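Subject: complex prediction, re-run

Hi both,

The earlier run crashed halfway through, so I resubmitted it with identical inputs.
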Amino acid sequence: MAVREPLPEGRADLRERVRRRRRAEERRERNRYLLIRLLSFVVVLGAWQIYGANSLEIIFSPFTSVIAHLVHLLFFGKLAGAILYSVSMFLGGLVIGSLVGVTLGVAMGRFAGFEAAVGMYVYAIYSTPLVALIPLISLWFGFGITAQLIIISMFVMFPVTIAVYNGVRSVEPALVEVARSFRAGERAMWRHVIIPSVVPYIVTGLSQGVAMGLVGMFISEIYTALSGMGQILAFSANAYKTADMLAVLLTVMILGVFFRTVIEELRKRLAPWFDKGSGK
Amino acid sequence: MSVASGTRQAKAAATHISKWYGDLEVLHDVSLEVYQHEFLCLLGPSGCGKTTLLRILDGLIRADDGTITLDGEVVTGPPANAAMVFQQFGLFPWKTVSQNVAFPMVLAGTPRQSIAEKVRWAVELVGLKGFEDAFPDNLSGGMRQRVGIARALAVGPDLLLMDEPFASVDAYTRELLQGELLSIWERFRQTVVFVTHSIDEAITLADRIVVMKTKPGEVYHTFDVPIERPRTVTAVRQHPEYGPLRETIWEDMLAGSGRQA
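This time it finished cleanly. Structure:
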């Protein structure tokens, strides 16, 4: 596999030709998929445009009009400020939710007694639609920033907890034995075996946490004090400004994709060995 | 003959070892001495407790009865001067080849400079030069076990414990690795306990073969391998003693597992 013996003259030439042909094939394949994506994009946007142009303004808007509204909202409306507010709340909730989630997941996975004591509540709350808890949270914490942060944190926390718990549970016993055989103590065991095993699960949990956190963000902004992007969404919906609504949705979509890309990059940095079988 | 007869000094010893898994007695009153600078093979069919015995020797699990000594001292946990090579390689997927090899030395607090030197030496010894930064998942089975062997050798152990190290690689690679292990061992002569269920592998590598009997696992008979060193895999197979010894051990294993020849 490693050692390449020098080939005789004519053969070296052949290898170069084979390599070049393979590269050309790969390039052609890449181009083909790029073309399909591009076509699909054109078709979808075109359909949107045509359908939007032929429907009532309060039902649907053509793509160009949505973009125009987006630009207008950004530069002359409240969208830029709303994005700043919503994203800060989201990031705050993400940090709190992940910290609590990772701690809880690790503790549940590593200490059976703790899992026995707490696990059932975690599963019970995880199985409850979190939206149903919002009136209660409002009752206890009001309608301000605190309540919003708690809601977003909860949405983030549960998927992270469950993923990390599963990660800690699935640490390979054979590798624990290897480390023991080489005289690893408890600290070395965490540093060299348990934490690295769990990192990919944490990232998976975070990735789900991001998706859920965005849900929590909107819900908190619509169901507690109207604020941020949720406020713009609700106001434009009430006023039948469909193009504005679509502009906000487009923004969230872009934000979602952005955060997921960041997480995926984070995974590549933190767990470069975990490339296979991780899906996307 | 490689082993000086008469005044053989025990490196490690198991005395009256018994081990139960639930209601099943996997090892029954096993006593065994491993001599200094000896290559010992524990040979037996699956389920004879040979891997369990090896893990007890390494202090990874406790026997229910009996004691293990290494250099005359009772073993209660994994000893510093013993190193194990694992059947399923036991490599950390998040560590590169270098980092895997360095791992035991990092745990031991060896100075960084010294670790780097030993890693380089061990990686080169097993023929993995150029793969220092590869992750295990990108290596073939044979290459992974080379990493496992390099990791064990790098710490410079007095006692090398090998748990069917070549059972998870293909037949061709297996023979290749046997040859390489022979030439490495004939240079350094650590004390080795090598677990296998292959008679051919045992004869090729060992100075002495301990055949184990099943249900419960017990030491059955012990055979010296009268084939001179240095050896090569091919030379061993062509040696006049090879055929008869193989035959004798085969019959012994059959008898030990309660079957007729």
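Chain A touches chain B through 23 residues (CB under 8 Å).

- K.
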